[in-house]
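Hey, weird one. I pasted the Transcriptional regulatory protein DegU sequence into the form twice and got a warning about non-standard characters only the second time. First submission, copied straight from the form history:
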Amino acid sequence: MQARIAIVDDHALFLDGVVGLLQDVPELGEVVPFLSGLDLLTALSQGAPFDLIVTDLTMKDLNGLALISALRSKAPGVPVLVLSASADTAMRANAESVGAVGFLHKSVGKAELVEALQLHLTEGQADKKSRPDDAVLAQPQLGPRQLSVLALLAEGASNREIADRLFISENTVKTHLKAIFRELDAHTRTAVVQRARELALI
């Protein structure tokens, strides 16, 4: 079966360039672009399968660390490789601590990028074969919209401000908050934000 690679980056020009570059390497399989981590999570929730996920770290709607953390439950066993313009060693360590299998700088050449993708595709497929079908990593089950609400909550936004920015009703915000509080086992806004940061969800 042909491999499928998801590429996540909110810079459209860069994303188009990487996808075009990789589509010239047919042995990598299908390359699917996403302009946001939320779009990828939505695709996964709808059953889209991927063998490797490549993501940037600095993105507007959902940062890369939060995405990688969410993928531990949304796509367990699928390796996540970071492709970032940052050379910050602390950021790299943070990415690896939440589950990234590797870190590449965006200045990397085509040959090195392709080699890294092939390596992690092979390792990911081997890991899937050795992984029990019912293995599930303990991680809060938050959907894409709930992650967006959580991110705005961490910025100090009120329920009304969250509703306005996400174009949803205030009652819907309250429903999402109840689910977030339950999943993170927290009872106050401060506690839920602190817990989310501990889990690298924000």
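That's the output from the first submission. The warning seems to come from a hidden character in my clipboard, not from the data itself. The longest strand covers residues 4-8.
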